[in-house]
Amino acid sequence: MDEVLADKLRSWAERYNNPRYFAEDPIAFPRRFAQMMTTTQPTLGFEGGEWRPSLQDVEIAAVFAAHFAWGRRAMIVRDCSRLFDEMLWRPYDYVMAGDYRNDNTSIHRTVKWSEVAAICRRLRDFYSNGSGDAEGGTGSRRCTLGTRSLEELSAAEMRTRIFGQKADPKAANKKIWMMRRWMVRRDGKVDLGLWKNSSPADLIIPLDVHVYRQASELGLVTRKSKDFDTAREITAAFEEVFPGDPAKGDFALFGYGVNNA
pTM for the full model? Predict the structure, then answer.
């Protein structure tokens, strides 16, 4: 890669890998739960007792925030807020209770409440399978001991077992790789870094039409199909610039978009 371009990419990534650019962004929702996990002051629960989010609350928030991450950011934030209001801002308890809003009205663009309910059921099945239920908090059943983490699942498994889509080795799986970036990258800035058994080196750039166009304009990709092989080609280009952390290139593309709008 041309060193001038590489320097620009590094500069954009350093500048825009900053929480102030992502306050009104889907990642704000799992970040909220992650911050509440580590605060020294537990949150007052709706039953009146103290409550602190678990890793599973963060994971569920990340699943839905990533799933809704298409369209205008203001719309995404609005509709994520509507969803978590329905969950009373306790995603894990909502999922495990099994009583979901389940109708064919829209919650976000073409996503219906029935689709949200189906994802919740699959999440409940996953967390219930082999988990060790333990009582905790006040008035709620918390699975804090031995509860499974979605980190166990590959991107392909997330696609079928959580989002309920057919297996497709060619699919770019943008929302899944976006969620994995949030949960794995651990530089302490924008991303959460809560999945400690996964390596940032193994992440793939979340690829959609917007990312493809930017990468193509920068000469980072030659393929025309917006599929998994193309996502890997862009990731390989970023590996040259950000060794061991290619998904940091996501912030470089964000910076390119801001500076070339």
Answer: 0.90
